[in-house]
Amino acid sequence: MSDDYLEVNLANWDDRALLHPHSTGYDLDRFRRDEAAVSDVVRFDLPRLGSISGLEVVHLQCHIGTDTLSLARQGATLTGLDFSPVAIEAATTLANETGAEITYVCSDVYNAVEVLGAMRFDMVYTGIGAIGWLPSIQRWATTVAGLLRPGGQLFIREGHPTLWAMDDPRPDGLLVIRYPYFETEAPSVWEGAETYVEASRPLAHTTTMEWNHGLGEIMTALIDNGLSLTQFVEHDTVPYMALGEYMEAHPTLPGEFWLKEGRERLPLSYTLQATKES
């Protein structure tokens, strides 16, 4: 696999990382004003995450650090890793402004063991919209296993691969599978000048290269690398308007959205936990 995808995606994410710190969608001022504030994404995860106080946690593909900071506010010692130097700079600035002691490292996720060290962490955390930028889920799982101490835990909440395979809903409201569900050698190449939150301008770098990974592929990759699944939950919500006008805000879960009609038809996200064998 050529590393062309890294150059293309990095240009896109550097551009997003210039815009996102100023977006109301991220609302960084809330974290500055309130030392107990956490992101909606992490708030959703807390019932399954449990206590992480005192744990050494690495957040892979951490972007501008709002979720990383939120995890640190649960009492864990956090390291955040992202391939975008612009994102790492924004995350570091937010940590400094809020008095959080978080270590940020700029690196491609596949090099995480080399740059951070092997078997250093009690938990690897990764969130919505992360693994779709990676061409090999097996290589990702090898990285996760390499970072974890024996008995350490992976926590991932992600968009459901069925959702990633969906076309935009038809005018009659039917949901249609159009794009790959399984991992493919070649990426899906997209063009889009908008990001997923309000922004002051269109993106200048509009091309992205992405991959879907089926649930079986993800679970098998983890098992192949010595992790045992401990929890898997599918959700009918996701923290963005994934299907546009066919979705609405959830009435009781801040920052979560679900289908306006026929919610039982489609899982939108999932939480998976796995433990590295001792």
Description:
The protein has 278 residues and is an alpha/beta fold. It is 30% helix and 23% strand. A 7-stranded mixed beta sheet has the order 3-2-1-4-5-11-8, with helices on both faces. It is globular.
**Average pLDDT over all residues:** 96
The major sheet is characterized as: 7 strands, mixed
Strand tally is 11
Instruction: Give the CA-based shape.
Output: globular
CATH class: Alpha Beta
**CATH architecture descriptor:** 3-Layer(aba) Sandwich
- Which structural class do the helices and strands define? alpha/beta
Here the CATH topology equals Rossmann fold
How are the strands of the largest sheet arranged?
3-2-1-4-5-11-8
Q: Name the CATH superfamily classification.
A: Vaccinia Virus protein VP39
Distance between the termini: 32 Å
Give the uncertain stretches in residue-range form.
Answer: none
Number of domains: 1
- Percentage of residues in strands: 15-25%
Q: What's the alpha carbon Rg, rounded to whole Å?
A: 18 Å
Element-level helix/strand string: HHHEHEHEHEHEHEEHEEEE
Number of helices: 9
Report helical residue fraction.
25-40%
